[in-house]
Amino acid sequence: MVRTLLKIALSLALLATGLAAHGAVLDVVPVSAGVYALVGPLGQRDQANAGDNATFGAVLTPEGVILIDSGAGDAGAQLIAQALRGVTRLPVRWVINTGSQDHRWLGNAWFAARGAKILALRATVGEQHALGAQEVQALAQAGAAGGAPPSPLSSPDPLAGDEARLVLGGVRVELRRFGPGHFPGDAIVWLPEQRVAFAGDLVFADRMLGVLDNGSRVDQWARSFHAFASTLHPRVIVPGHGRPCSLEQARAQTGDYLDWLVGQARPAAENMEDLEQAVTRIDAATPRTFRELANAGELNRKNINRAYLQFQMP
After folding, report:
1. pTM of the predicted model, to two decimals?
2. Is residue 22 predicted with pLDDT exceeding 50?
3. Which of 113, 173, 176, 180 could bridge to 216 as Cys pair (CB 3.0-4.6 Å)?
4. On the CB side of 6, how many CA atoms lie within 13 Å of its CA?
C-alpha cells in the first residue's frame, strides 16, 4: 500500500513538473483591463511547446473567459489552460478561432469537452475542414502532438459573412475578415471599446512572417493588412506571432515587408527573370530591418521564391 502511494505521489509530482514546464512556454502579458496576450516562442513547433509557437488571447468576463485560438491539439490546449490559471479561475466559456492553421483551432475539442462554445467565421471553418487531416499529420511528424493525435473540431454553427458582432459575457466582440492573410480565411477579433485587435495570422511581430503555398497571395495579404489598419486604427495589436505591439510596429514588420515582397517579386516574375537568380538578387538586397527579424535566415529566401511563383500564376 505504501509503495503504491509513493508511486502515485511520484507520478503526480512528475505531472506537476511537466505542467509547470509547459506553463512557462506561454508568457502572459496584460494588454488592457481583463485582457491578456499569451505569447508563445518565436521558433518552430516542437514537443516542448506542443505546437503552440504562436500568440493567443484571453478576455475575462463575469461569466467566463473568451479565448482567442485554442492551441495545437490537446497538449497545446492544456498549455493554454495552465497559463490562464495564473490570472483567473474562471472557466473558458467561448473559443473564437481566427484561422485554420493548427495552433489556431486543433485544441477546440479539449475546450469543448469542458463546456466551451466554439465560434468562427464560415470561411475559416471551410478551410479547417479542408486542412485538418494534413495538419494533424504534420504535427505528428514535427513531434509536437504531445500524445494522442488531436481530434479536429470546428464550430458547428459557423458565422456567415465577413463580419459578426457578438456580446459574450457582457463584452462587445467583433469577428472580422479583411481578406486573405497567412491563410485565405484568416480573421481578427476586435474589442471596439478597448480598441484592441487580436489580429491572428494577419499580423506577425518580432519575427518574419512566412509565405505559404496555400491559396493566399502576398499581394492579397498586403491589401488585407492595409484594410485592417486603415479601418480599425487599433490602439494595441495582439499579433498571431510575437508580443503585443503598436500599429506602427505591425506596419514596419508585416505591412512593409509584404509591400517590399510584392514590389520585388512581381516585376521579376513579369520580366521572366531566372527564378534562382531573382531570389539570390532580391535576398541580397533585403533591408536590414527585415533581416533582423527572428527566423529571417530561414524564411526570407523561401518567401521570395513563393512570392515570385505566385506572380507567375494567372
Report:
1. 0.90
2. no
3. 180
4. 3
